[in-house]
Design brief:
membrane, 24 helices, cell inner membrane, mainly alpha
Length: 442
C-alpha cells in the first residue's frame, strides 16, 4: 500500500472512530500516532513528534483568547443580559408581523456579539423566548425552531469560538476572521428576519396557533410600551460590552487576546453590578471555563499532531493534484468542499468537522488561489448548517432538552428549522460566489 493510500485509510479510520463514539481528541491522537509510526516505521519518531506538538502546539500567546472569550460568554450568560436584550427587542418590535420571532433573531444577533457560542444562545433563549412566544399564540414547535435556527448566529458573528479554531488551524489572523464574519453574519440575521415575516404572511398556520387572534392581540399591544429609562438600563450593559470588545478590536486598539481580557473583565463588572454572581456561581463559572478551555486546547494540540501526520503522508499535496487534474476550478472546489462539510454535518459535531477537514483542505484552497479568510467563512457557514440538520443537530437537541416539553418532539423542531436552513444555504451560495462579502473590510 502506498503512503497516499494509507493516508486515506487513516482518514477513514478517524471518521469511523468518531462515529463509534470515541472522543475526537483521542481519535486524532491515536490515528496520528499510528500513522507516523507506520509511515516512517519508527515509533521513536512518533513519540518525539507527539512531545514536540504537545509543547509547541498551544504555546502561542494567541491561544489565551479561548479561555478569555469563554469566560466572558459564561459571565454574560449568568448576568441575565440575554433576557433583558430579548425583552427590549420584543418591546421595540411588537408592532411587526412575527414580532417575537424577529425579536428572538435580533436578541440572538446582539447576544452573539459578546458570547460566540451557539449552544449558550440556544439554552438562554429557550428559557426566555419560547415561553413568551407560546403565551402570544405562536406554535410551540415553531417557537423552539426559531430559537434553534437563530442560535447559529453565535458561530459566525464575532467573537466566535469556531472562527478562533479555524484561524488557528488555517494559520490566519483571528482578528481578520472576526472582521470577515461581520457582513455574512448580518446577511444571515437579515435573511432570517425576511424569512420569518414572509412565512408568517404566506403560511400563518405554520407559525401561529390562531392567526387572527394573534393579529388582534398584536394590534392591542401596539399601545403598550416599555418606559425609556427601563429600556436604556436593560440595554446599557450589552451595548457597552459590544463597543468595548468589538470596537477596540476593529479599531486596532486591542489585539484579539487583549479584547478577550477586556471583555471578560467588563462582563465580570456587569455580573457584579447586577448582583447576579455569588461565590457559588463564580466557582461554577470558573470551573466551566476551565473545562471548556482545556477541552478546546487539547483538541487543537491533537489537530496539530494530525496535521503533521497528513504532511508526512503527503496527503494535502496529493489531493491538491487530484483536484487540479479533475478539472475543478477554485469555485468548483469550493462548492464540492462545502457539500462534503454539509454531509459531514449530519453525523459529526462542528469542532470535529473543522479538526478533520481544515488541515486537509486549507492548503489545497490556498494553492488554488482562494483567500483563506473567504474559505474560512464558507467553512463556518456550512458547518453551522450541521447544527440544525438531523440526525445530529446539536442546537436542536439543546433546545429540546432545555425546553423539556413532552408536547414538542425533536422531529417537530427539526421541521421548524427547515426555513432557517434554506436561508443559510442561500447565504452560503452568495458568500461563495461573492468573496467581497467577506473581504470588504479587510
Amino acid at each position: 500500500m502506498t503512503t497516499l493510500a494509507f493516508g486515506f485509510v487513516l482518514i477513514g479510520v478517524l471518521i469511523a472512530l468518531v462515529l463509534l463514539g470515541m472522543q475526537i481528541a483521542y481519535a486524532l491522537f491515536g490515528v496520528a500516532f499510528v500513522g507516523i509510526w507506520m509511515i516512517r516505521d519508527n515509533i521513536d519518531l512518533a513519540f518525539r513528534m507527539l512531545e514536540l506538538t504537545a509543547y509547541s502546539g498551544i504555546a502561542d500567546y494567541l491561544f489565551a483568547t479561548i479561555p478569555l472569550f469563554v469566560l466572558m460568554g459564561l459571565l454574560v450568560s449568568v448576568s441575565n443580559v440575554g433576557r433583558d436584550t430579548f425583552e427590549v427587542a420584543e418591546d421595540l418590535l411588537r408592532r411587526m408581523i412575527c414580532g417575537l420571532g424577529v425579536a428572538t433573531v435580533a436578541a440572538n444577533t446582539i447576544f452573539a456579539a459578546v458570547t460566540g457560542v451557539s449552544i449558550a444562545s440556544a439554552a438562554v433563549f429557550t428559557r426566555v423566548a419560547v415561553p413568551e412566544m407560546k403565551r402570544h399564540g405562536y406554535r410551540p414547535s415553531f417557537s423552539a425552531g426559531t430559537v434553534a435556527g437563530s442560535s447559529v448566529l453565535g458561530m459566525l458573528i464575532p467573537p466566535s469560538l469556531l472562527l478562533i479554531i479555524y484561524g488557528v488551524l488555517a494559520e490566519v489572523s483571528i482578528g481578520g476572521m472576526f472582521i470577515a464574519g461581520i457582513i455574512p453574519g448580518l446577511m444571515l440575521a437579515g435573511g432570517f428576519v425576511a424569512m420569518l415575516i414572509s412565512v408568517t404572511i404566506l403560511f400563518p398556520g405554520f407559525v401561529l396557533e390562531d392567526p387572527e387572534g394573534t393579529r388582534q392581540r398584536r394590534l392591542d399591544r401596539a399601545q403598550e410600551s416599555m418606559p425609556l429609562n427601563v429600556m436604556v438600563s436593560k440595554l446599557i450593559p450589552i451595548i457597552l460590552l459590544v463597543i468595548l470588545v468589538l470596537g477596540g478590536l476593529y479599531t486596532g486598539f486591542f489585539t484579539p487576546t487583549e479584547a478577550g481580557g477586556v471583555g471578560a473583565f467588563g462582563a465580570l463588572v456587569v455580573a457584579l453590578s447586577r448582583r447576579s454572581l455569588n461565590r457559588k456561581k463564580l466557582w461554577q463559572v470558573m470551573k466551566q471555563t476551565g473545562v471548556i478551555s482545556v477541552s478546546i486546547l487539547l483538541l487543537l494540540v491533537a489537530a496539530s499532531f494530525y496535521s503533521r501526520m497528513l504532511a508526512i503522508a503527503g496527503l494535502p499535496n496529493a489531493i491538491a493534484g487530484l483536484v487540479t487534474e479533475s478539472g475543478f476550478g477554485p469555485l468548483g472546489f469550493l462548492f464540492f468542499y462545502a457539500l462534503i462539510i454539509l454531509l459531514m454535518g449530519m453525523i459529526l459535531d462542528s469542532t470535529s468537522i473543522l479538526l478533520i477537514m481544515v488541515p486537509i483542505a486549507a492548503p489545497i484552497a490556498q494553492g488554488m488561489g482562494i483567500d483563506l479568510m473567504h474559505f474560512g467563512i464558507v467553512t463556518v457557514i456550512a458547518v453551522e448548517i450541521g447544527l440544525l440538520t438531523p440526525p445530529f443537530g446539536i442546537s436542536v437537541f439543546t433546545v429540546h432538552n432545555t425546553l423539556n416539553d413532552p408536547s414538542v418532539s425533536v422531529e417537530q423542531i427539526f421541521g421548524a428549522t427547515l426555513p432557517f436552513i434554506a436561508v443559510m444555504l442561500a447565504v452560503l451560495v452568495i458568500v461563495a460566489l461573492v468573496p467581497s462579502t467577506v473581504t470588504l473590510f479587510l
